[in-house]
């Protein structure tokens, strides 16, 4: 496993981060989830990402239980706040001081830790003054409940405003967690240049496009049984935009590139993300322990300019690049 600094901080995280969105507490039984976490640890992954909204807090509990007994100082544990949790009352979502302060305490209890290494605003909250949100984060850092603060799916302007307030309040905004892969490149035009300027790194989710970039979905073919595309509990909805014959044919053309490098398709997709400017880590999930070993094979892989050009020739014209697609709901979800 290789490690990279997160933003302009002194915090190092593993190039591959284990995330449990859509799996722990919902799609995967707790025993299998624990096996996946232990497989991640055995593979050298030290960074684990979750959120209070995942399976309505159950994912945090599953991760906390799976990590019990590990040396806390050897881990980097991340979680998030914004989306509705609990009974979804009128103050059970957003980035108000009330919701943030209550949420961090709940997350720490479920995770079984006194602090998280990174606490992230899961989306931008248009209903709360940004100054209120950042003051709450500053207080959580001073209380030692979070060491650093990050954001997820914020625009370049929102990141810039948040960074300025954080600096005034005496803490560091060090990370952005956007969706990013060969097919979804909306951060490249605005978010990445802003973050490079400000010393903020990307921790990217969906590096294999919900499994599409593994090549397991064939153009015109039947959906593989048990795949994310057949999961009506959330997976099918998130993946459907990628399941066009044009995209799947483009993905198929990546197979000789991966073969030339001795990589699986998943490894090629993750290595591509890790080769991009400003990326500190790629988030991967797993529904089976053996998937971890495949994903970790991308750590330390360097793709040269010729390989990157071949990938762009295959998929670049299919990639979504519109920066306006980085956005948060106009009102808090309930």
From TrEMBL:
CDD domains from the UniProt entry: Aldo_ket_red_shaker-like
InterPro entries, A to Z: AKR (IPR020471), K_chnl_volt-dep_bsu_KCNAB-rel (IPR005399), NAD(P)_OxRdtase_dom_sf (IPR036812), NADP_OxRdtase_dom (IPR023210)
> The organism sits in which domain of life?
Bacteria
Q: Name the Pfam families for this protein.
A: Aldo_ket_red
All residue ranges annotated as the NADP-dependent oxidoreductase domain in the record: 15-314
Alphabetically sorted, this entry's keywords are: NADP, Oxidoreductase
Record flagged with keyword Oxidoreductase = yes
Give the protein family: Belongs to the shaker potassium channel beta subunit family.
Protein name from the UniProt record = Aldo/keto reductase family protein
Species the sequence originates in: Brevibacterium daeguense
């Amino acid at each position: 496993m290789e490690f990279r600094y997160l933003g302009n901080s002194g915090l190092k995280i593993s190039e591959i981060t284990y995330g449990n969105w859509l799996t722990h507490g919902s799609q995967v039984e707790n025993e299998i989830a624990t096996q996946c976490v232990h497989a991640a640890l055995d593979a050298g992954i030290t960074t684990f990402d979750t959120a209070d909204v995942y399976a309505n807090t159950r994912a945090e509990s599953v991760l906390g239980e799976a990590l019990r007994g590990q040396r806390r100082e050897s881990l980097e544990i991340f979680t998030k706040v914004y989306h509705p949790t609990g009974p979804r009352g009128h103050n059970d979502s957003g980035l108000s001081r009330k919701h943030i302060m209550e949420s961090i305490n709940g997350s720490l209890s479920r995770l079984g830790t006194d602090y998280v290494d990174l606490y992230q605003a899961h989306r931008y909250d248009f209903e709360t003054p940004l100054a209120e949100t950042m003051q709450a984060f500053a207080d959580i850092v001073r209380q030692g409940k979070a060491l650093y603060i990050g954001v997820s799916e914020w625009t370049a302007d929102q990141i810039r405003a948040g960074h300025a307030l954080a600096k005034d309040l005496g803490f560091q905004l060090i990370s952005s967690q956007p969706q990013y892969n060969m097919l979804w490149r909306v951060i490249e035009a605005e978010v990445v240049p802003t973050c490079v300027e400000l010393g903020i790194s990307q921790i990217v989710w969906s590096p294999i496009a919900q499994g599409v970039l593994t090549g397991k979905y064939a153009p015109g073919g039947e959906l593989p049984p048990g795949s994310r595309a057949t999961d009506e509990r959330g997976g099918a909805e998130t993946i459907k935009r990628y399941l066009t014959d044009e995209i799947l044919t483009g993905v198929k053309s990546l197979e000789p590139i991966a073969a030339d490098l001795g990589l699986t398709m998943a490894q090629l997709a993750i290595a591509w993300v890790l080769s991009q400017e400003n990326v500190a880590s790629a988030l991967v999930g797993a529904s089976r322990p053996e998937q971890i070993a495949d994903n970790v094979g991308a750590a330390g892989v360097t793709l040269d300019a010729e390989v990157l050009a071949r990938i762009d020739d295959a998929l670049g014209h299919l990639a979504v690049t519109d920066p306006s697609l980085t956005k948060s709901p106009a009102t808090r979800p309930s």
